[in-house]
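Our preliminary data section would be incomplete without showing what the modeling component actually yields. Below, a chain of 496 amino acids is followed by its predicted structure, encoded as tokens that our downstream tools consume directly.
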Amino acid sequence: MPGIFISYRRDDSAGHAGHLHDELTDHFGRDTVFMDIDAIEAGEDFVEAIEDAVGSCDVLLAVIGSRWLTSADADGTRRIDKPDDFVHLEIAAALERDIRVVPVLVQNATMPAASDLPESLAKLTRRNAIELSNARWEYDLGRLIAVLEKVIGGGRDRRATGVAGRGARFVRRPVVAVALGGVATALALALGAAWYSGILSPSRLPPDAVSADCGRVSVMAPSAPTNAPANDALRSRVERAFDALPGSASAVFVNLTGPDRVERDAEVQVSAASTIKLPLAIEVLRQAQGGAPRPGDRHAVTQARVVGGTGILRQHVGESLTTLQLLQTTLVYSDNTGGNMLIGLVGSESINRTMQQLGFGSTQLRRRFMDLEAERSGLVNVSSARDAAEMLKRLYLGELPLDATMRAELLRMLRCRGQRTEPELDFMGRMLMPRPALARINGTLPRVRNDVALFERDGRAFVLGIFLRDQANEAAAEDAIARAAKEVIDAVAAAR
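Predicted structure:
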């Protein structure tokens, strides 16, 4: 039976839990880690399987995110207060049997107070917690693995010696270079990687915002298209997923290794929110490959440039970033300050002109981010689900006006964004376990929730875009996007 049991709430921390599961199984082996999504066989009693696993495990990891305590049923009852709630059952059983319970805090969550928990879970607050921060993931994961090794024994030899005092440093999967064809291209990418490594030098910003590898993720290489006929079952499942979306939804699904395509009002021009940062990025890199702005030019973050909303640069006034650092921070953290600085570098007119020339007629940058006066006057940035999906499709296939190095940079940055699991930066990935490789960007405004992503699964690639407008219940809209993405992923997995 497994030594490690991962307890999590699906609508709270599924993305973090899935990522943690993958990392721990890499280190300790699949038979050592239990997580309900793939450890319970078809037809097996779910409750009995969980009780058996909890009863026989050596340590239970209670993954606690921002919604762990407040998640409620349709009638408003907190799930944690219900004795038959799976999370309640799992943790209560572990505490009763005196199994080692480690609270794992994600999404900047804090430990709940004993008074906020039912009596059977109150002892949880006396267990020392460990935080898994997105900005310090490897370091925090190394600390957790060191604790687990003391409890269940050593794992596989997959760690490198860490800096003194940091504990075991976990080594992630190796980087896979993008396959763009040709010896010359490979050489150009190798030289480009070394050049950009110097440009993206360390600073006081979070490491994954500035490092040359951004978490050492690989970039995507186009999969070979297949000659398979259209898959009616796949399209039907995607259509049903789109039908389940709330009203005023635009959605598009494109199979990049086959002929399948499904749309629902995908051509409707809507508020783009932060998905407009994708065309901004395309134009920045298009101009950068021509030398103006140059990738290594430095740009100071001043107080006068700082705006509100999402992002981290407002905490780093006085620092200087290269053009590529600025773009990476803008995309990975959806940084509005960085976005406005980039608009100033390349010009909104140039962005719109390039979008028109590329055939993205619904996409227009009409104002800067957090320009409240322009927003009150009704001026919004616009796009469509079809335009956004087509941009990712052409990026993947190498059909944008970007050379091989710039294309690889943008794919890498969007992959870095796809790793982030903060609630405001992650809709589609919340229910995906194991989390597939994805390059993505999303956006939020009042009553607006947009998300578009490029997925890879089992050697196949596809694009999914969902734009929701006029949503009175924004949390429900985010969950609807997550459910639709899971259904589409499952449909793709079934379509072999």
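DSSP finds 16 helices and 16 strands in the chain. The CA atoms of residues 216 and 255 lie 27 Å apart. Preliminary results of this kind motivate Aim 1 of the renewal.
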